[in-house]
Amino acid sequence: MQTLARRISTYAVLAAACLSLVGCDTLSDHVKPAAYSATASAMPKPRTQSGDKIKLVIYGEDKMSGDYEIDANGMIQVPLIGAVRVAGMTKKEIESSIAHRLRSTQILLNPVVTVDVVSSRPVYVMGEVEKPGEYTYRNGLNVLSAVAVAGGFTYRASKSKILVKRAGEKGLTEFSLSPDIPVYPGDLISVPERYF
User: Fold this and answer.
1) Domain 53-119, what fold?
2) Mean pLDDT per segment of 10 residues, for the chain of length 196 residues?
């Protein structure tokens, strides 16, 4: 009788411990508001870099329109206006720069310029993910979807923080894990190991 009471008591303690562990490891515990002060709208906008390919459309100018790859010096070569520095710029900044150049050289009086990114540099996901490596950038990518593309977290992964290195920045920046953190072309995402 006493042995049965001990077994029931032991099972009750084990069940309570399991329930407390299961309650600690739910998805909602890992998806928390970002710990940084910037809002998603205040995050830096994606900027072009060497290796990106852009589509330049100048209305009415088929010979100047086309796909251009940004060279190692951050330039594209546009017929009639020559080399234009575009690395480190947003799409809107490139549009303004090329339109200004066309006006100032008096090639076009009122140019209508649009720019789209055709292909971007890959993103790199490393650390405690199942398949670390290089992945194709897609619009709308955030740190959680980047981890998912890399096969998800390993059992050793920290699910509360993530390290991100933006293209052109030195060092990794630590963020609380959140879907609000966007991923840009050329970013390096590292999932650290958790410590008990």
Assistant:
1) wza like fold (3.30.1950)
2) 50 42 37 38 70 92 92 92 91 94 89 91 94 91 94 92 86 88 92 86
CA distance 134 to 123: 6
In angstroms, the CA 48 to CA 94 distance is 9
* Separation of alpha carbons 98 and 92, rounded Å: 10
Token reading at 161: 């923080």
Q: How many CA atoms lie within 13 A of 13 on its CB side?
A: 6
Q: What are phi and psi of 67, to 5 degrees?
A: -90, 135
pLDDT at residue 139, rounded to an integer:
83
**What contacts 193, CB < 8 A, 6 or more positions away?**
127, 128, 156, 157, 158
In sign, the C-alpha dihedral spanning 45, 162, 190, 21 is negative
d(CA 63, CA 47): 26
The C-alpha R_g of the chain, in whole angstroms, comes to 25
Q: Which CATH number fits domain 26-45+121-191: 3.40.50.720, 3.10.560.10, 1.10.10.10, 3.30.1360.120?
A: 3.10.560.10
Residue 23 CA to residue 175 CA, distance in Å, equals 24
pTM above 0.70, yes or no: no
